[in-house]
Design a protein that fits this description.
This protein is α/β, with parallel strands linked by helices. It has helices at 44-51, 74-84, 100-105, 114-126, 142-153, 172-187; strands spanning 2-13, 16-28, 33-37, 59-64, 67-68, 85-89, 160-164, 191-195, 207-212, 215-218. The chain has a six-stranded mixed beta sheet with strand order 6-7-8-3-9-10, sandwiched between helices. A four-stranded antiparallel beta sheet has the order 2-1-4-5, covered by helices on one side. Bound molecules: adenosine-5'-diphosphate and magnesium ion (MG). Adenosine-5'-diphosphate binds at residues 11, 13, 18, 20, 38, 40-46.
C-alpha cells in the first residue's frame, strides 16, 4: 500500500544543511495501524508529508498503491492524494469563516457533487455534529473541531488516514474519542499512520515505528 525507499529530506537553513529524513525505507501494508513515535525534530512530520504527497523528498521514492508519487506531475499527485489519502493535523486546519459543512466539503473538488454533499452530511451525523452543520468552527470545542477535521479527511473515502499528533491539543477524553474514529476506520479495512506521543492508540496499533534524528530507529 505505502512503500518508502531510501527516503531522504534535507533543508538548507542559514547556509547549513538540516537532515530531516535520512534514508528511511519502509513498507506499510493495507489495513495496518501504525503508530509513529520519536522526539521532537526527529522527522515525523516530514515523513508523513512525504507519504501524503505533500512534500517532495530530496531523494528516494514514495509509492502509494503502486503509484510513484513524486515521479508524477503535480496535478497527478494532487489527484492521487485527494483520492487515496486523508490528512489530520494537530492544529485542526479548519477555515474559520466557513460552516462545518463547508469545511468538510473543502476536501471535495471545487464544485462538490450532490453525492459529496450527501456524504458530508452523513459524516456530520456520524461524528455527532449534524445539528451544527451551519455553525463556524470557533463555536466548537477543541474535541469537536478535531472530530470535524477527521470527518473532512474521510470525505473521499480514502484508503489511508495520515494523522500528525491529532490529539496533541486534546484532553484525554476527547483524545480517546478521536482515536475511536481512527479505530473504526481501521476496523472497516482502512490503513492508519498516526504520529502520537499519547498511549490512547496502543491497544489498537499493529505496529510502532520509532524515528531518531531522521532515521528509522525501531520498527
Ligand atoms: P518532528 O515532526 O519529528 O518534530 P520534523 O519532521 O518537523 O520533526 O522536522 C525534522 C527536522 O527538519 C527538524 O530539525 C526541523 O527543524 C527540520 N525542518 C522541518 N521542516 C523544515 C523546513 N520547512 N525548513 C527547515 N527545516 C525544517
Ligand atoms: Mg512534527
Amino acid at each position: 500500500m505505502i512503500h518508502c525507499s531510501e527516503l531522504t529530506k534535507t533543508f538548507r537553513r542559514n547556509g547549513s544543511e538540516v537532515v530531516s529524513l535520512d534514508r528511511v525505507s519502509l513498507e506499510i501494508g493495507a489495513g495496518e495501524f501504525v503508530v509513529v513515535r520519536g522526539p521532537s525534530g526527529s522527522g515525523k512530520t516530514t515523513l508523513l508529508l512525504a507519504i501524503g504527497g505533500m512534500q517532495q523528498p530530496s531523494a528516494g521514492t514514495v509509492t502509494l498503491d503502486g503509484e510513484n508519487l513524486y515521479a508524477m506531475s503535480s496535478a497527478g499527485r494532487a489527484r492521487a492524494r485527494a483520492e487515496k489519502v486523508g490528512f489530520v493535523f494537530q492544529m485542526f486546519h479548519l477555515v474559520p469563516y466557513l460552516s462545518l459543512l463547508e469545511n468538510i466539503l473543502l476536501a471535495a473538488p471545487a464544485w462538490p457533487s450532490a453525492e459529496a454533499r450527501t456524504r458530508a452530511n452523513e459524516l456530520l451525523e456520524q461524528f455527532g455534529l449534524a445539528k451544527r452543520a451551519t455553525h463556524r468552527p470557533d463555536e466548537l470545542s477543541a474535541g469537536e473541531r478535531q472530530r470535524l477535521a477527521v470527518a473532512r479527511a474521510m470525505l473521499n473515502r480514502p484508503g489511508v488516514l495520515l494523522a500528525d499528533e491529532p490529539t496533541g491539543n486534546l484532553d484525554p477524553e476527547n483524545a480517546a474519542s478521536v482515536i475511536g474514529h481512527f479505530t473504526e476506520f481501521h476496523k472497516a479495512g482502512g490503513t492508519v499512520v498516526l504520529v502520537t506521543h499519547g498511549t490512547a492508540a496502543d491497544s489498537v496499533a499493529s505496529r510502532v515505528i520509532r524515528l531518531e534524528q531522521g532515521r528509522l530507529a525501531g520498527d
